[in-house]
């Protein structure tokens, strides 16, 4: 009955193929955080980059939701409270980094998804085009009542509460690290080496065995850096968690929109190589006051921006919250805004991303994809 057994094998294969996506577990999670990457910014970035609407890779991701970004004490969040919600499942006050205010005036640390991963032996990585101590990356590994406490954030980076801490760190803030570690009488090289890192300014350090930290003060090419990070993290058979933040604040609209397109290219590339057992999430911590209000089809957006925008930013830089750039194509009010942002997802567990949801739900989505239970 050879044919019979082939039929049985085929049927079993069909059954395996029919396991609903919600029942499949992820081995890895990659969270792409577009800082200030609201819907208006994505819309304008796609048109600027490709001359057609909905042309971003993000806009082709199979599961999409609208995520509320309000914080515990404000309708409009800052990056600290915004990322705390996503990384810990708790809304907190603006300015607080993965910590809750407590009634005695102190603060209570909130366990982050990165810490859940470290505790379970996964590899972890944090890559950002902002300073590594800034609110968004800090909310993955640090717990401080004020996002401004740079010294404490650097200290906690090297004194993890779970596992051996973040395995790959890439970001800016080299000069800040020198100033902060000097207060403890050491150089960043000494401090990171003591904590078991290969440390330097070159992203080529990443990709091999062992832990690596790259701090620099200049921009770096995003795709090679994130590919090298994946190469390194995916050596761990238990899996990995990677958070990539790309700043896309449009207080300088040209720069912000270029960064949005840059991150989109990165997500397209990483989605192609990450493997089917990886939950990939894109979201923003909050939106921003950019509006597209004109522009003609078949005419490059940049050429239609007749107003001298650079001059306008300079003039308005001292007046946050005012309209800083206005021309026939876009206007920008220099402020975070409170409307929902998109969350887009692919991979195991991505089907939990749908409808209107709270940013805190994205923590639950990541936890459920890994099959982990929430601790209180
Ligand atoms: Zn932000």
Automatic annotation (TrEMBL):
Mg(2+) binds at residues 35, 134, 136, 245. Binds 2 Zn(2+) ions. Binds 1 Mg(2+) ion. The active site is at residue 79. Its EC number is 3.1.3.1. It comes from the Bacteria. Belongs to the alkaline phosphatase family. This is Alkaline phosphatase. It comes from Novosphingobium sediminicola.
